[in-house]
Amino acid sequence: MSPDAVETRRYLLTDALDDLGDSGDPFERLAMAGYVLNAAADLLLDHHRAWAGGGKWLPRRLLEAAGARGSALLEGHLRLCRSADPTLLVDAASRILDLVGGPLREGYRRTWRGVVESTGAPVGR
How far, in Å, CA of 81 to CA of 96, rounded? Predict the structure, then answer.
């Protein structure tokens, strides 16, 4: 991933972890847990320069490329799904964030670089 893409994913994962820790609703936690698993996996696999995977391939790629960290992420997700306890998932995803520069909250800003339809001129610079 490009440095900008990593930064964006760091910000989004940080935000999701904050939401996960603040939520008491089990359905919200399940929904956020899926997002956290995928976002953290993308960062971890990119950090290891490994292919990402979806579906059944995601756990296979995590275990193959990232060993203990991949396993911890999967175990945290499983624990949350079984007991609604987010602790292990938050810890595993936080350790992955630390690998790629840490949580990102304050100061994050991304300017949209779209095109104005009527003129074709770039915007957001």
Answer: 20
Q: For residues 94 and 114, what is the distance between their CA atoms, to the nearest angstrom? A: 32
Phi-psi region of 67 (alpha: psi -120 to 50; beta: other; left: phi over 0): left
Residue 24 to residue 86: CA distance in whole angstroms: 10
User: What token pair was written down for 45?
Assistant: 């696999």
Q: Which residues pair with 122 in a beta bridge?
A: 115
Alpha-carbon distance of 90 to 11, in angstroms, equals 15
pLDDT for 4-29, tens place per residue?
A: 899 999 999 999 999 998 888 999 99
Instruction: Summarize pLDDT for 55-100 with one digit per residue, the tens.
Output: 999 999 999 999 999 999 999 999 999 998 999 999 999 999 999 9
pTM beyond 0.85: the answer is no
End-to-end Cα spacing for the chain: 22
Closest among 17, 56, 62, 10 to 36, alpha carbons compared: 17
Q: What is the dihedral of CA 64, 65, 66, 68, to 10 degrees?
A: 20
